Amino acid sequence: MTHDFSQEITGEQESENYQNQQGNTWQQYFSFNTDHKVIGIQYMVMTFMFFLIGGLLAMLIRAELLTPESNLVDRPLYNGLFTMHGTIMIFLWIIPFNAGLSNYLVPLMIGARDMAFPLLNAISFWILPPAGLLLLSSFFLPNGTAQSGWWSYPPISLQIPGGELINGEFIWIVSLVLIGISSIMGAVNFMTTIFWMRAPGMTFFRMPVFVWSVLSAQLLQLINLPALTGALILLLLDLSVGTQFFKPDGNGDPVIYQHLFWFYSHPAVYIMALPAFGIFAEVLPAFSRNPLFGYRSVAIATLGIAFISIFVWVHHMFTSATPGWMRMTFMATSMLVAIPTGIKAFAWTATIWRSKLHLETPMLFAMGGAAMFIFGGVTGVMLAATPFDIHVNNTYFVVGHFHYIVFNTITMAIFAAIYYWFPKITGRMYAEGWGKLHFWLTFIPANITFFSMHPLGLQGMLRRVSSYDPQYQGWNVIASLASFLLGASTLPFIANIVGSWLYGPRAVDNPWHASGLEWTTSSPPPRDNFEEIPIVKRPPYDYGNPKYSIIEDSNNNE
Amino acid sequence: MFSVFEYVLIAVYVAVLLVVSRWIGQQAFSWMPPQATAEAQRVDDLFSFLVSIGAFILLGLIGVMVYAIAFHRAPPEDYTEGHPSRGDARLEILWTATPTLLVVWIAFQSFNIYQQLNILGLKQIVHLHTPLESAPAYAETVSDAPKPASETIDVFVKQWDWSFRYPNNVTSNQLHLPINRSTRLNLQAQDVIHGFYVPEFRLKQDIIPGRDIDIVLTPTRPGKYRLKDSQFSGTYFALMETDVYVESLDRYNQWLTQTANSEPTPVNQAVAENIQPPKTLFNSGWYTVTPAQPGIANKRKQNNDT
């Protein structure tokens, strides 16, 4: 017996252990700590703050769009709002939150004591707060934040207030380069950790799918992120010292920027989505008491998605100066993504088939997120079809599709993860009733908000407009009102998390009777994660088979 | 993995899904704006096809989830195990083959329809110092040769103004198109990237400064439409709209002669708003790109005509 599956808690021992972990050490979260678990929590809490800020900006945008006229914020401010909303949500919420969650979980899941380079890990994190604050500081510049959208396409991003070296766009680029450097360092760390730090017996095909998805996502960070970082540095030179890489009135070409930008920013969608798929693959089996159906295909499909996604970036540029042959080539490659993602969606569904479903909060979020992903995936295939994309490109149809992926799928998965691993991370249980309230307050308004955008887009309402034709008002009012409710849904979540973290009942080591190495250590885990490094002898997703069942042990003990 | 009852259940479910998703696919035509070009009809056919397939997959998978929620719930404290099945090679091959075939089918349909659209002509990148000049003769075509068209109109865009030059050198802020005739639009941008988009036409094309891009379209439905800038173009982006009239060849020619004899009266909402900003609750006073004055705009066009 290499690890201790026993569920028994001798209260005394547990609380002593708990004191050792958490007692009077909240300061450690504000320090340069090299423990991957502390860093993980630092990432997750900080990015959640940015999620709240990004959400407030979104509600301001939706408030402006309640009426066809421009009457809440003036146009430059509106342009700044959606630029910052997109930037914050992508670069300071989803991507770094995933980095934090992966930081916390990957060493535990593969049976390692820490990440491969703990110091580098801490540096990766501590680059982010200054970069984020720098970005936010541009709100206080006299000429305001960057106003050219999160794509920051030249030449429009190069139209800056004359003579000012420090402007919103300058700050935007510098922050993004810093965040990019942090991500690249993180990617090196994750790749090394997963390749070299696995416990004895933890073969690649015994790794949880979450680890596979982190591996794939971080591989993409390593391959593709340098393209964006390079493009941003060239853009900065154009902006500040008068080079002409992307300036059409010099000898530059703005379309080259689009290629470099999307070469990273399309895979970025998978850098965000793959960990979400990984979360589904952990939560769905645990709460349906079935092994993950088709584990091997799902693991290979994860790598497959990463691989194909490197070759699809031009589908964001079908209406750019893109010749027909390129449109057709990238239409074909974009559609290929549907095959591995289809495999995953079928595998999730088959896992639930003939199961013993438990609809606790993590499962609600995971099933809700998976179902919404199928909707987002279907509209994604539609967008890959060039003739249709030409009609809806840059309209609210794309905005709706994108938010079905980034909010209804990825953010729902993130909530599933927070609830699922909350007992492990904090050593306490969250309040189930509040969690369910949070789910329904999120699920229903999110669907109303983002569904409404599809008919708007089909009818031709363009994204990024601060005023619109009166014919579009109906769906806009629905979307806006639902979005305010969606914003309010974070309140029960915050109350639950903060309250439970401080006062929640103590959690047992494995409250969900889940398989996976992270559940074999104490909650919260000790500094070195495991009393002794476990030796892995079991297949992943040990559900369904009584021979392997953890419950047998604990039943005997109880 | 399945019992006989479940096979029957699945068969019935698939049959119902086929009917329902086909019906939803037919509804999709009504979700779109009216079809005003020959191209629009093909795009809508493709959309309907995509909606049918999408509805089938979406309802199929969500149906299974709902079925599990309805009939496979465990009692709250029952943490015993479900089924031990870890996979099924036949099933996995089936669900790898299914999306593959669907994707090939969808890609084939889309390719066919794209061939029928036949809309885009791209010329090689030409670096013009004054982008409003017409392309020099050495600008050879790349793979996409210019499509034949019976009418050619030059489209000049800048922040935030559309102007059109017609064959008789008339310049106007309105786009007039003769019905049922293929018309080539030569698109040229002066400052930043803009986009040509009329929702009823289903066509959209970015206009990149320094490049010559043309699209060919054939309007089929008379009426008045709105031309929008589809690529974010800065401060007054939302205001960059203008009217498009599709009319008979006679009325089109009539309009051309009429306009040739009258003084151009450009209207530019962005200029108006720059002078007299609307009242908003929050006024940031942030950096605003000033739109070119209409007078200057006209002069440019006249220079260009010479």
TrEMBL record, chain A:
Its EC top class is oxidoreductase
Q: Where in the cell is it found?
A: Membrane
Bilayer topology: Multi-pass membrane protein
Give the family from UniProt: Belongs to the heme-copper respiratory oxidase family.
Q: Where this protein primarily resides, as one coarse class?
A: membrane
Which organism's genome codes for this protein? Nostoc punctiforme (strain ATCC 29133 / PCC 73102)
Q: Which domain of life is it from?
A: Bacteria
Which GO biological process annotations does it have?
aerobic respiration; electron transport coupled proton transport; respiratory electron transport chain
Purpose of the protein: Cytochrome c oxidase is the component of the respiratory chain that catalyzes the reduction of oxygen to water. Subunits 1-3 form the functional core of the enzyme complex. CO I is the catalytic subunit of the enzyme. Electrons originating in cytochrome c are transferred via the copper A center of subunit 2 and heme A of subunit 1 to the bimetallic center formed by heme A3 and copper B.
* Claim: Signal is one of the keywords in the record: no
Which parts of the chain span the membrane according to its record? 41-61, 81-106, 118-141, 170-197, 209-237, 268-287, 299-318, 330-352, 364-384, 404-422, 434-457, 477-503
Tell me the ranges covered by the Cytochrome oxidase subunit I profile domain, including all copies.
Answer: 20-537
Q: Which named protein is this? A: Cytochrome c oxidase, subunit I
In alphabetical order, the GO MF annotations are:
cytochrome-c oxidase activity; heme binding; oxidoreductase activity
Q: Which InterPro entries match?
A: Cyt_c_oxase-like_su1_dom, Cyt_c_oxase-like_su1_sf, Cyt_C_Oxase_1, Cyt_c_Oxase_su1_BS
**Keywords of this protein's UniProt record, alphabetized?**
Electron transport, Heme, Iron, Membrane, Metal-binding, Oxidoreductase, Respiratory chain, Transmembrane, Transmembrane helix, Transport
Q: Which Pfam families match?
A: COX1 (PF00115)
Cellular component, GO annotation: membrane
Q: Which Enzyme Commission numbers does its entry carry? A: 1.9.3.1
Automatic annotation (TrEMBL), chain B:
Taken from the UniProt entry, a GO cellular component term is: plasma membrane
Top-rank taxon? Bacteria
Where does the record place the Cytochrome oxidase subunit II copper A binding domain?
148-258
Query: What does the protein in this record do?
Result: Subunits I and II form the functional core of the enzyme complex. Electrons originating in cytochrome c are transferred via heme a and Cu(A) to the binuclear center formed by heme a3 and Cu(B).
Q: Which UniProt keywords apply?
A: Copper, Electron transport, Membrane, Metal-binding, Oxidoreductase, Respiratory chain, Translocase, Transmembrane, Transmembrane helix, Transport
The UniProt entry, under InterPro entries, shows: CcO_II, CcO_II-like_C, Cupredoxin, Cyt_c_oxidase_su2_TM_dom, Cyt_c_oxidase_su2_TM_sf
Membrane topology annotation: Multi-pass membrane protein
- Enumerate the Gene Ontology biological process terms: ATP synthesis coupled electron transport
State the top-level EC class. translocase
Q: What is its main location?
A: membrane
The protein here is known as: Cytochrome c oxidase subunit 2
The terms under GO molecular function for this entry are:
copper ion binding; cytochrome-c oxidase activity; oxidoreductase activity
From the Swiss-Prot or TrEMBL record, state where the protein is found.
Cell membrane; Membrane
Q: Which PROSITE patterns match?
A: COX2_CUA, COX2_TM
Q: Which family does it belong to?
A: Belongs to the cytochrome c oxidase subunit 2 family.
Cofactor detail note: Binds a copper A center.
Enzyme Commission code(s) on record:
7.1.1.9
- Cofactor(s) needed: Cu cation
Q: Where are the transmembrane segments?
A: 6-25, 46-70, 93-114
Which residue intervals define the domain Cytochrome oxidase subunit II transmembrane region profile in the entry?
23-121
Q: What's the source species for this entry? A: Nostoc punctiforme (strain ATCC 29133 / PCC 73102)
Q: Name the catalysed reactions.
A: 4 Fe(II)-[cytochrome c] + O2 + 8 H(+)(in) = 4 Fe(III)-[cytochrome c] + 2 H2O + 4 H(+)(out)
